[in-house]
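Lecture 7 notes: from sequence to structure.
We start with the chain below.
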Amino acid sequence: MMAMHMLWPRDPDSVKDAKLEREAAARVWTFAKPYRNQIAGFLGTVVFQSVLGLVPALLFGLIIDSAIPNEDRRLLGIFAATIVGAALLQGIVGLVERYLSSMVGEAVIYDLRVALFDHVQQLPLAFFTRTQTGTLTNRLNNDVIGAQRALTGTLGTVVSNVITLAITLIAMFAYEWRLTLLALLLTPFFLFPYRRIGRVQQSITREGMELNASMNSTMTERFNVAGALLVKLFGRGDDELELFSSRASRVRDIGVRSAIFTRGFMTALTMLGAIGTALVYGLGGLFAINGSFTVGSLAAMGLLVGRVYMPLTGLTNARIDVLTAFVSFDRVFEVLDAPSPLQDSADAVALDAPKGTIEFDHVSFRYPRSDELVVPGLETPGATGDDQQREKDIALVLDDISFTVEPGQLVALVGPSGAGKTTLTSLIPRLYDTTDGSVRVDGFDVRDLKQASLREAIGVVVQDPHLFHESIGDNLRYAKPDATEDELLEACQAAQIRDVIEQLPAGLNTIVGERGYRMSGGEKQRLSIARMLLKDPAIIVLDEATSHLDSENESLVQEALGKALAGRTAIVIAHRLSTITQADQILVLDEGRLVERGSHGDLLENGGLYADLYSLLVRDES
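Predicted structure tokens for the same chain:
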């Protein structure tokens, strides 16, 4: 029997504005086209199963009309064996159908997921700063699965219902047209309780899904490290339990109500089917008594009438099913169609043997506005109306910046918070494109270089380093997948973290936990430095890379970095005196503009912003 959830009326509100457009359908077909042979085979098995489903009813009638009156045991045995053979064949065809449908479905879901994952990785960083992670992963999971079901479940169900209904009605009309019309006239009375009870069940199901989603959200937020820590520190465990318990109890109550309505619906189906069968047998029996209808034909009609109502019920939802499926495809395609402005140009060249020269030529930059987002449907709710207008009028984050860094130089970026230091460094590996001007590496505009080769030449250590929920070794090998254990330990030694790792029971195989929570802040920082050193880049960007280290470890890491930076270009954002005073060149930013540049001594003599900032640093570190 068809699963109960497939029988309930669908939610028309979810697709009230949806339309089935030819372009969308054509695009769906192009995505499924590589599997057209499997889809054809799948549809063929559905048709074959529908035809085989008629065999028992037709042969049962022949047994009554031909085999039994003539006492033809041979014919009776042939019919009985044929019925068994048809059932066996139907089961085999069903297995083939299931194999083909799963093969097509899983292949399509694989292609969609890989295409989405690959495309999302290529989107600009601004996309991720304004997109809710949960919404994005929902597109990668639920909507992809919905699209996959459209090709197998929805298509197969609609075709099966149409074929089954058409073949059954043809057979019934061939037997007795009046009884067939009688069965069809009962259809409205069959669908009325289905829709009434189904609406209630639909409401119950929707509420249950919302409550389950709420419980899942609660568990996701409370069971990650940060959430669990917050609950414990505020002592709200009992309150959280009470909140979760209230939602879980509501889900329990909804489950009971759903079970009652399901049973009631099944009872209604059974009763209406019994009424329809009784009317067919009653009127057909009168025809048989009058001699205008055979007993075997009457028995066959009684079996066939039960095959009419179920397909009709399924087809009442066909339009909503199809539109719902295409809504899933539209949501998937919305992400796939998102343009990525940071694409390699057709004539992009690789940065071979990088030397490390960096040039900023009258660079200005502002972050993308909300109306420039690649996927508005995934944007974090917020900037609308007047907020968007204010965004359009926002000042540039960087304004007419020009400077040159020679190979091997150490450059320190200094300035108040929000001056644009981190934004400036993000333009070097082309995480963003400049609004005006150009950034050049070794004489090449970064927009003319292949991004992979550009980023391979740049190592970055940020203030809050990210570690994957994997082993220390796996996190380090992210920079160099083929690194040997000796190379890993050498990098760890340079970053002053080797002793810590060797004291761990599992050593390099130690799992660092979600976002590296099992490691201290200083340990995470040093691991990220080791990962950068393992990459062996020509250009190094350090964004407050020693901010989480105590004075002793900082001096050790600074010594290690001093050796590692030898012969490499380095741009360092730092508030520590030890880093700033060692710089070959200091760039002072204020409100997005380059206001001072020079050596430490020269800038102190000028008595400008740098001198003020330096005096604050001296006072803070004294």
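Points to note: Residues 604 and 611 are 5 Å apart (CA to CA). Confidence is low (pLDDT under 50) at residues 1-9, 383-393.
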